[in-house]
Amino acid sequence: MKKGIIIILMAVVAFTACQNKTKNAEKISAENKPASKIWTMEQASQWGAENGWLRGCNFNPSTAINQLETWQAESFDTETIDRELGWAEEIGMNCMRVYLHHVAWQVDKDGFKDRMKQYLNIAEKHGIKTIFVFFDDCWNATYKAGKQPEPKPGVHNSGWVRDPGDLLYEDSTLVDTLEIYVKDILTAFKDDKRIVIWDLYNEPGNSGYGNRSMPLLKKVFAWGWEVRPAQPLSAGVWNLSLSDLNKFQVENSDIITYHNYEGPEKHQATIDSLKTIGRPMVCTEYMARRNNSYFQNIMPILKKENVGAINWGLVAGKSNTKYAWDEPIADGSEPPLWFHEIFHPDGKPYSQEEVDLIKSLTKE
Fold first, then answer.
1. pTM for the complete prediction?
2. CA distance 157 to 138
3. Which end of the chain is flanked by fewer CB atoms within 10 Å, N or C?
4. CB-count burial class (<10 Å; 0-12, 13-18, 19+) for 301
5. At what angle do helices 109-125 and 174-189 cross, to 10 degrees?
6. Which residue, among 230, 271, 282, 277, has the nearest Cα to 252 in the 3D structure?
7. Rounded Cα gap, residues 347 and 231, in angstroms
8. What percent of the chain is predicted at pLDDT more than 90?
9. What is the pLDDT of residue 36?
10. Which run of H or E residues covers position 131?
11. Residue by residue, what is the 3-state secondary structure of 306-362?
């Protein structure tokens, strides 16, 4: 989904590894890592043991172009969600990562939470746990409630929207709304065992924001700590150059999450670096065929290392993420190689070989 090239090198590890050493723990400020709020290593390990190997997809139904079309009352599509999660269940997936959006909540707070419950009921029926994502710095900067745009032919994620995007810098009162939103959702679902992770902020600093995203990143963790749900709080590292953000993310996450769309050698290097932190790990985005990130060469590594494997995309649809990030096809014709996704809209696999491989790995 994203354009950042993800290599987590030893510069990050040099910082994060020291978090495990008692002599350095005392140096961490209360602002950044209050011991009473962040999980202990024992709590994190227990979560890992209870949940086992997570594997699944970033999921929005094929009939939704973005987060708003997924969650707004007029376009919430339980029939498609049920059908497509059924296909995921058939190949042994047990976890979906699903993006929320504050505008859908703002328009209809109770209805939004009810639709989240409906989604969770459907997912549970298929044996699927959920990672919910709050904020996101990727793709379109502006958005509005109501009918969403139609896809631009052949353009990857043409209608995906950030949250909160540029509006955060234009409306000084928005942060108050966002605080109420995050705390309301976390409080409502803080003990729901069907939710396996709260992903507080997707790719902070993307879209050229850089460290401008730091204040909101710090705030959303602080809001999460105030509620302190039973599930872990995390924000995945994704770009080495954002060193300040990376440092805060790994320092303050209950479990370690990350993105990597590269080939097996570089992905293994990322795992080797991050696992020195000693906390359970989940790769919350991978699999971009053009980039030599396939199910065949990455998913076996993730299983061997007991790293959660959440690829981008389940069913090809309005998000257009079967097309590559920077290779639009103006007439909307079929790309020679799908970038993401596993299934056609009718449930036919893009690659039977891939599906067979996934099934072989997900057998318990």
1. 0.92
2. 10
3. C
4. middle
5. 40
6. 277
7. 32
8. 90
9. 54
10. strand 129-136
11. CCEEEEECCECCCCCCCCCCCCCCCCCCCCCCCCCCCECCCCCECCHHHHHHHHHHH
